[in-house]
Amino acid sequence: MMLAALLLAVTAAPVQDAVDRAMAGRQGAVVVLAAASGRLVAAYRLEVAARRLAAPGSAVKPFTLAALLESGRLKKDTTLMCRREVRIAGRPLDCTHPQATAPFDPPAALAYSCNSFFVEASARLASSELAAALRRFGLASRTRLAEDEANGVVREADSAEERALQAVGEADVLVTPLGMAAAYRKLALRRAAGDAVLAPLFEGLEAAVRFGTAQRAAVAGLDVAGKTGTASSPSGVHHAWFAGYAPASHPAHVVVVFLERGSGGGDAAPVAAAVFDALRRARSPSDGRVKVCLSWLHPSERRVKSMTLEEYVAAVLAGEAAGIREPQALRALAVASRSYAVHFRSRHRAEEFDFCDTTHCQDLRLAALDARVREAAEATEGEVLWFRGQPAAAFYHQDCGGQTEDAAAVFPESAAPYLRRLTDPYCVSHGRMEWSSEISSNDLARTFGMTAGSIRVTERTASGRVAWLDVSGRRISAPELHFAVGRVLGWHLVRSAAYEVAASSGGFRFHGYGSGHGVGLCQHGAARMAAEGRSYREILSFYYPSTRTGVTAQGLEWTRLGGERLEVWTTQPSADAALVAQCERVLEEAERRAGLRTQGVPRIRLFPTVAAFRDATGQSGLVAGSTRGRVVRLQPPGVLRARGTLERTLLHELLHVVVETNASPRLPVWFRESVVVYLAEDRGRVKELAVRYGRATVLGWIQRGLPAEIAQ
Predict the structure, then answer these.
(1) Residue 487: which of 631, 294, 297, 666 has the closest Cα?
(2) What totals of helices (H) and strands (E) does the chain contain, helices first?
(3) Other C-beta atoms lying within 10 Å of the C-beta of residue 265
């Protein structure tokens, strides 16, 4: 038997540190296994992981689903309608996931952890079949990864009700965190092998993290698959699980989190996210590769190097960061440079590479890479600035001198609302960056190939920068002068277009402020903002107004439609204008049914596509609407209308608004959900309570809270 000390001696320190930080002050255990070898990579309280036996709750559902799929009793396209209310042997196990408008298939049922689905489906298995499957995956076995390890327990159910409870992890099965990790490792190995039989199961585990009960285990830049579980101990205290693996399509690590108190989705999943993020940072980047031409200015020395986009961003920071040390400012520049790269990626397509290594694209310094720029790139991995669903042209420069430039004045082809002139108090908070230089008439003549007897500014931009000059009677733009002088005499002589020029002995004296073209993010201003405690997202929001930062397209342009009692927001105002009156009528009906008036002004967002709805809410396409507080988000009205569910969906979601804006803080989630079902469909557990106690009394509990005998 391998000793824990020996195993942990080979632990990757950053991962172990992340485990320790995430579990600080918590009771429980964490196990991290290498999927291929089964080696213990990191652990928290290994003795607890080896000895603590607990009911798995919904974390057992993947193995129930595996038994159904392997036996052929359930197919991928089998669908079952959620009945919402579930009682087994007098125990309430009602579903609390969002109301579904269509039956669940196995992946969706697993993602949303639908008790109704698994209880009904498990009736297709004999008790012996379910128990055998749970044992086959190792839930009753020792892992041999620690001393004094306890065996898991899987009993064969004596009745149909016990079998149903076992199928959802509430009876006849106890497992240690180590045992759970070993069981999920078996799933991970079958995922890596491309097991077609269990494909719906793998899809469900991935969906659980994308939009289901395990959303808080999600990590930017890493696809995670997993399942949460919450179960009651004999003392009545709820304990929590998360079990899963990543990357989802080719698992490298298995992570199991067990907490003595809490819920799977709310408490265990965020701990898992911290561990997965540490694993992501520890791994070598391998995707998003770009081709970069090195030594581009020297054709005889050119060579093309393939690297990941994140390596490219780090190397750009090494060349462009201008001595910035503040981490938040570096992160802002990392997002800007990544966005710039994504936006202008086709610039060298004809030459069969993506970027050159000069300021024509972005200044690249592979030899200057260090920990600070790598951290900035890794901390913002995959994040891009978006404007109206497209990557932004995120120009940036060294010093704006107190006022940024409008892109229309410098890069008219890239003019955009987020690249407008801004007053920048941060850049000049410690004084302006002042510069001056002397350029002889002979040098200017050599630069322009003509006599340079006089120079005067003839036109300035709105920010005060030079736009046009007259050079001995020839009209020359400020960028033309800048590049001509820079290439022949050196880039330090004319650092920006914010200057005055006057004749001097033997030539001309340029005196100005700032450095660079002035468009977009000012690096010196960003550094000051960071020093004052601003986050990189706040910095980006200041310099690129109207953009959104994220790993996927964001920034839909919303229009508010009229309405007296509520707000209706849409991206298609002409198509959705007629819905305002319908929404207000349905709100009045919801208030009438509940006997309550909505607190505040409800807001309804009508998404233009199902995909946009999924991205914004994290829900699947099976869910018609989603409500948080007083904000309702709906799938496209045309889609709901075609299904014949628009009116019903509006009523259901607006009832949620009425209830949520009036609910007592002590009102449990199950009652909030069930009272909406009762008011919308006249059924369910609350209907039974209304028959027993009276409708008015039960609806009064919304504001007063449940009496003790009901709350227990």
Answers:
(1) 297
(2) 28, 28
(3) 22
Helix then strand then coil, in percent of the chain rounded to 5, is 45, 20, 40
Q: Is the peptide bond before 707 cis (omega within 30 degrees of 0)?
A: no
Do 13 and 154 have their domain in common?
A: yes
Mean pLDDT in residue range 256-283: 89
Check: pTM over 0.70? Answer yes or no.
no
Phi-psi group of 402: left, alpha or beta (phi > 0 → left; psi -120 to 50 → alpha; rest → beta):
left
Domain range for 660 is: 559-711
Confidence of residue 586 (pLDDT cuts 50, 70, 90): very high
My answer on whether 34 and 167 are in the same domain is: yes
Long-range CB pairs of 557-565, under 8 A, 24+ apart, other chains included: 557/388, 558/605, 565/598, 565/601, 565/602
- Cα–Cα distance measured from residue 254 to residue 33, given in angstroms and rounded to the nearest whole number: 5
Ordered DSSP codes for 49-68:
HHH--B--GGGGHHHHHHHH
Residue 589, pLDDT above cutoff 60: yes
- For helices 371-379 and 327-343, the axis angle rounded to 10 degrees is 60
Same domain, 23 and 165: yes
Whether residues 56 and 192 share a domain: the answer is: yes
* Contact call for residues 182 and 243 (beta carbons, < 8 A): no
Q: What is the pLDDT of residues 409-440, one digit of tens each?
A: 999 999 999 999 999 999 999 889 999 999 99
| Together in a domain, 324 and 233 | no
Kindly report the CATH number assigned to the domain that includes residue 237: 3.40.710.10
DSSP state, residue 629:
T
Q: Are residues 482 and 523 in the same domain?
A: no
Contact 247, 18 (CB under 8 A): no
Q: What are phi and psi of 447, to 5 degrees?
A: -65, -45
Q: What is the mean pLDDT of residues 127-135?
A: 96
Residue-wise pLDDT tens digits, 442-458: 898 888 887 778 899 99
Model pLDDT, residue 25: 86
Indicate the number of domains in the chain. Answer: 4
For range 642-664, the mean pLDDT: 93
How far is residue 39 from each of residues 257, 273, 284, 520, measured CA to CA in Å? 17, 20, 19, 49
Do 15 and 72 lie in one domain? The reply is yes
